[in-house]
């Protein structure tokens, strides 16, 4: 049942999309190394690269990834990435800035912008990726893949498989971990 829900949210995983947790076998690591020509790269610097999603959910849909293999937003903690908490927070804020500047280049009005992370196990590729989108979604059903669930009672976010970028930044700022459960 839970598995079915996951497949519904992220689509049935391709074999190459799923089991991988290291840079040798990671398809997204290929975007900045061996398989660059397979990706439609829209933005790049020393530390990050952004490319068009091969199965867009929205009018514009890009993936922004770090050029370091980090599994997911849930693995963004001091212990996992061996980086001081404030630097993790700075990097995610940087991702937000880059996302906005990409959407600027596509002339997307601020009210039509949506950015955020899927939270394991609701992520199809095990390499941290920020969804950078210009709304509307191509069909209303896609909206459900990227829900914005408001927090309550001190939580930034309620139960959800998606953390909007601002929520993720505020959770990390407090030194907490981004999880499916309220956080
Ligand atoms: Zn990777
Ligand atoms: Zn995702």
From TrEMBL:
<dbReference type="InterPro" id="IPR011146">
    <property type="entry name" value="HIT-like"/>
</dbReference>
<keyword id="KW-0378">Hydrolase</keyword>
<feature type="domain" description="HIT">
    <location>
        <begin position="27"/>
        <end position="142"/>
    </location>
</feature>
<protein>
    <recommendedName>
        <fullName>HIT domain-containing protein</fullName>
    </recommendedName>
</protein>
<dbReference type="GO" id="GO:0000166">
    <property type="term" value="F:nucleotide binding"/>
</dbReference>
<dbReference type="InterPro" id="IPR036265">
    <property type="entry name" value="HIT-like_sf"/>
</dbReference>
<dbReference type="Pfam" id="PF11969">
    <property type="entry name" value="DcpS_C"/>
</dbReference>
<dbReference type="GO" id="GO:0016787">
    <property type="term" value="F:hydrolase activity"/>
</dbReference>
<feature type="short sequence motif" description="Histidine triad motif">
    <location>
        <begin position="127"/>
        <end position="131"/>
    </location>
</feature>
<keyword id="KW-0547">Nucleotide-binding</keyword>
